[in-house]
Amino acid sequence: MAPAAHADCDVGDGECIGGNASRQRSLERTWSIDSNVPLVPFGLLEPPASLPGTPLVGSLVPRNDMLPSGVPLLHDASPSHVSRQTTAEEQVPISTGEWLRRLLAFTGPGWLMSIAYVDPGNLEADLQCGAQFGYILLWVLFGATCVGLGMQLVAARLGCVTRQHLAEHCRKHYPPRVRIMLWLLTELAIVGSDIQEVIGGAIGFQLLFGMPLPYGVLLTAGAAFGFLFLERFGTRPLELFFGVLILVLALSMGGLFALISPDTSAVVEGLFVPRLPSSAVSQAVGMVGCIIMPHNLFLHSALVQSRVIEHGEEREAIKFYTIESSVAILTSVLINTCVVAVFAKGFYGTPEADQIGLKNAGSFLGEHFGEPLRIVWALGLCAAGQSSTMTGAYAGQWVMQGYLQLKVKPWKRAIITRSMALVPTLAVSFYFGGGHSGLDTLNSYLNVWQSIVLPFAVVPLLTFASERSIMGDLALKPSGKALGWTAALLVMIANTYLFVEGVGGVVSVGLILVIVVYVAAVAYIAYVPTLDAVFE
Questions:
Q1: For the segment 123-141, what is each residue's pLDDT rounded down to a tens digit?
Q2: What pTM was computed for the model?
Q3: DSSP string computed for 159-194
Q4: How far is CA 232 from CA 25, 245, 500, in A?
Q5: Within 10 A of 505 (CB to CB), how many other CB atoms are there?
Q6: Which of 16, 44, 102, 204 could bridge to 9 as Cys pair (CB 3.0-4.6 Å)?
Q7: CATH code of the domain covering residue 143
Q8: Domains held by the chain: number
Q9: Residue 92 lies in a domain
Q10: Residue 532 belongs to some domain of the structure
């Protein structure tokens, strides 16, 4: 007999935040019509019914009768069962149509994850890259995005196989002081990302309606939180809304590319012929931080749990997640390439090249190419800011839930995490909205901060995903581990360069001490976890 599910109530205010009835309604409402794969809500408003019930609790085991008939839920998820192979006799060929329906059923988490690759921070790095260096750094954009895709696929594998997201693994395997440090670093990275995302959306509203920057911040943050209530209608409507925002962004940036008509041969050469002049090294290294964001690894490992996976189907699920994530990331590459190419064509080699940033890019486009292009840019910026702010809300609550296991209603936790980001964002908007310069410099520093924090997410991820006691036969193979750790090492080398560059290239005892402490901290994170099996 399967263990009975039980309600989990908020001991602080006596309000029940779980229960069989609500979880059953959730599954009935979000049952996928695309295939026989049930969907569960992401959990902003009510707990999903996956195993475990992330992002609320880590030990809920729903009953079989809570699922539509014919779809048993995993009850024994030990690594030996996870690694079960389907024999030749068990394999049943499926038609192309059925295969596509199953792919569609797993489509969604990768697209939400890809939004972080086209957020306002990335768009600003793109336009500055194009305006200041032309097309020659497109290969850095492409390479960093490919590295990011590899890391995202590892995060999806971890969440899919273990039914626990990265923050939950960190809580289980690290001692209290270490996980508190990791939580603080991740939260600070999320706050830095939120500043870029909300300010980007606010700048879009400012270009469209002329509203002051602080009002735009409140509108962007308020609208993002309001749109998240689409989850009330199920997982698919919320994913569809994100898809519409991505479509608006893609059409906006693609439209700019078509109207301005950059040199396509130069674009192709920039993507596949590596060139790195000494003056562009800092820009190239900084792009790593804005493209690969730490919180996105936590986000993706949780998003994949919105699909309830039957016993023995983990390999197939990973395959489908790999396909949809790759297509989504390819779309983000095309969007970013359009932005780089547009500003390379319009401003590279001009006196304005060094002055262009996120705040004035729309005005420059309007002055040089006409008012319609300013509006198109503003629409894309609003879509980027809105969508990335919404995914940031989910990342923030999953990180807090995983590390701290707070027993509060999910919408209350969402308010807490949003407030942590909104207060500094408002302060930034009031300061720079009052006529102060330096917003672009702040964005550059925030990108550097993302890069510095990144190893503290990548190292735990690779450590857990490589461990057979956690992943069974689906643990990373030696080639995957080699590629992952090589990428982590390259990020560390890039960060060391940023440390040296940040002090004007002068190597001092203090700088050497900072670098040694940083490297030692990352090495300690790799060494200290207790890697016992997550299934007990």
A1: 988 999 999 999 999 999 9
A2: 0.83
A3: HHHHS--HHHHHHHHS-HHHHHHHHHHHHHHHHHHH
A4: 11, 19, 49
A5: 8
A6: 16
A7: 1.20.1740.10
A8: 1
A9: no
A10: no
Structure tokens at 347: 């401003």
State how far the Cα of 311 lies from the Cα of 97, in Å rounded to an integer. Answer: 23
In angstroms, the CA 305 to CA 421 distance is 26
Residue 99, both tokens: 């295969």
Is the pLDDT score of 87 beyond 70?
Answer: no
Written as one string, the DSSP assignment of 425-448 is HHHHHHHHHTT---HHHHHHHHHH
pLDDT tens-place string over residues 278-295 = 888 888 887 876 788 899
Using CA atoms, how far apart are residues 434 and 225, in angstroms rounded to an integer?
Answer: 26
Under 8 Å CB-to-CB from 52, ≥6 apart: which residues?
58, 59, 60, 61, 163, 164, 168
Report the amino acid identity of residue 306. S
Percent of the chain residues past pLDDT 70, beyond the cut: 80
How many angstroms separate the CA atoms of 83 and 71, rounded? 20
Nearest-angstrom CA–CA distance, 338 and 126? 9
CB atoms within 10 A of CB 514: 15
Q: What is the pLDDT of residue 168?
A: 94
Structural domain boundaries enclosing 341: 104-430+437-527
What confidence tens digit (pLDDT) does each residue in 494-528 have?
888 877 776 677 778 888 898 899 999 999 999 88
Contacts with 117 (C-beta within 8 Å, 6 or more apart), sequence order: 145, 148, 291, 329, 332, 333, 336
The one-letter code for the residue type at 40 is V
Question: What are the tokens at 332?
Answer: 């983000």
Identify the three-state secondary structure at position 337: helix
What tens digit of pLDDT does each residue of 414-448 get?
Answer: 777 777 778 888 888 888 876 667 787 888 888 88
**What single DSSP character describes residue 305?**
G
70 in a structural domain = no
Tokens in use for 250? 């893609």
> Would you state the structure tokens that stand for residue 95, as one six-digit string?
């038609």
The structure tokens listed for 25 are 């309604």
The b/e string for 344-357 (b: 16+ C-beta within 10 A; e otherwise) is bbbbbeeeebeebb
**Residue 33 φ then ψ, to 5°:** -85, -5
Task: For residue 38, give the 3-state DSSP assignment.
Answer: strand
**Side-chain half-sphere exposure of 168, counting CA atoms within 13 A:** 26
Q: Residue 319 in contact with residue 106, Cβ under 8 Å?
A: no
Return all residues near 15 (Cβ < 8 A) that are at least 6 apart. 9, 409
